[in-house]
Amino acid sequence: MQEINKQLHELTCQEKVHVHLAKNAITSTGRRLIYDYLASQHLPYMPEEAIEWVWSTKRGTFPKRLAKWYKVNHQIAIDALTLSEVGNIASYNAEEATDYTIDFTKDIHSWQSGDFGDHGSCYWTCRNAARDMLENMNSYAVRFYEARIEGAYESGRERAVWGEGYRGYARAWLTPITYEQEDVKQHGLVLWNAYGIECLKMARTLASYLGVPYKKIELWNNSDSDGMLWINGAHGYLLGSQDMIDRIDAWDFREEDLQPERVCCVCGETLDGDDDNYYTDEDDNIYCSDCWHERFVQCEWCDEWIPRDEAIYAEDTGDPYCQHCADRHLYECSDCGNYYTESLTEVEGMRGDGVCEHCLECGDYTCCDHCDTWIRSEDAVEVQGDYWCHDCATQEAFECEECGAMHFKTQHYYDQETGKHLCRECYEDAQANKEELVTA
């Protein structure tokens, strides 16, 4: 039996290679502009998947492939001026040349979540058995690196994971597949579940390195994309011979699901399969009971589990609350920001739920001696040795136009000769001065 591209299933592992990509892929902005221009020329709509959105492939430049699609599917011959304008838009909006450093590995268990831009991946949490499935499928991981910044990443673990001179920042799965027809066996690779870089960019990089074309295909495992072998977006990119690319639009791995191993993500304890005494967080990380209760608490109001360092603790009871319940059922001091279960004291001129007792006693506040309203000390008005709020001072006191002090309205005097409002002391002084003038 004839075998084509057998070398695609025999990639060299653990050896970094450098790949240069020429300016090629058309950006999303470029695609939108091209669609707008085609519509302005009253041309029929072209489905996005009908053409490869890169400037140049083995089939020719983007304008040439566009013209061929309209000729084959609509019997329309696009004029040279229109093709030239499409070419200008595509060229202007193509990605710049890029250099990548990559390697391949079959040791899917050799790094931790986050080492290659894949923090939070379910393949390290609730779907950890999927990594065993990948190894059963003879899959590779393709990993992307950037040059190490001198003086950074100096821990022993980082040196072991990233290697001297480089730091990982992206990865994807790369699974060998075989397509058989009559006496021909064609070998290819499916790229999927990219982290850190768009899957399309990775496909272009690998296609350039391996010297084969690529194509976006639908992808499943046992007709499912969200089983144990989670497949992002239910699609991937096929790399292989042009004949294989033309024949395959979808692929099903048909790999038997394995059951995940329950391992505490903190202490590493393996939990029995029948043991229900385990917990998972929002990222599906698994915890044993002890590690969970060390790191999480239950909201006193709604019983939701929340990280201890994110909980809001009521100052008067010490009980934990989630932010949602704290905002709706607790009182937040407008001064110190602490939360309380009991209502707080309103302070005139301050927004929010009020001020706690501690802040009232220790902070810059005072109680109006006339109406008992709490006010900020800076807003208090002194009235004959007492401190009043602004409203009380306005309604029950007046400012002497001679000495400038505030006095009770019961001690208000009006000097008809000068037209001034005076306190008793200033009024009496004014009258005494008048008598002296008359005597003189």
Characterise the protein shown here.
The chain is built from twelve helices and 28 strands. The protein is α+β, with helices and mostly antiparallel strands. The protein starts with a strand and ends with a helix. The relative contact order is 0.07. A hairpin with a 6-residue loop joins strand 18 and strand 19. Helix 1 packs antiparallel against helix 3 and helix 2 crosses helix 3.
Please supply descriptive tags for the structure shown above:
elongated, three-stranded mixed beta sheet, 27% strand, 28 strands, 26% helix, nine-stranded mixed beta sheet, 440 residues, alpha+beta
Beta-strand percentage range: 25-35%
First-to-last CA distance: 138 Å
- Residue stretches low in confidence (pLDDT < 50, at least 5 long) are 151-162
Bulk shape: elongated
Structural class category? alpha+beta
Radius of gyration: 38 Å
How much helix, percentage-wise, in residues?
25-40%
The biggest beta sheet is recorded as: 9 strands, mixed
User: DSSP helix count?
Assistant: 12
The number of E-state strands comes to 28
Instruction: Please state the average pLDDT score.
Output: 86
Layout of secondary structure:
Blueprint: E1 2-4, E2 17-21, H1 28-40, E3 56-57, E4 60-61, H2 62-74, H3 80-92, E5 98-105, H4 129-136, E6 140-147, H5 156-162, E7 166-181, E8 184-195, H6 199-210, E9 214-220, E10 235-239, H7 242-247, E11 250-252, E12 278-280, E13 286-288, H8 289-295, E14 296-298, E15 305-307, E16 312-313, E17 320-321, H9 323-329, E18 331-332, E19 339-340, E20 347-348, H10 357-362, E21 365-367, E22 374-376, E23 381-383, E24 386-388, H11 390-396, E25 397-399, E26 406-408, E27 412-415, E28 420-423, H12 424-439
Parallel strand pairs: 1-8, 9-11, 20-22
Antiparallel strand pairs: 2-5, 3-4, 5-6, 6-7, 7-8, 8-10, 9-10, 12-13, 14-15, 16-17, 18-19, 21-22, 23-24, 25-26, 27-28
Helix pairs in contact: 1-3, 2-3
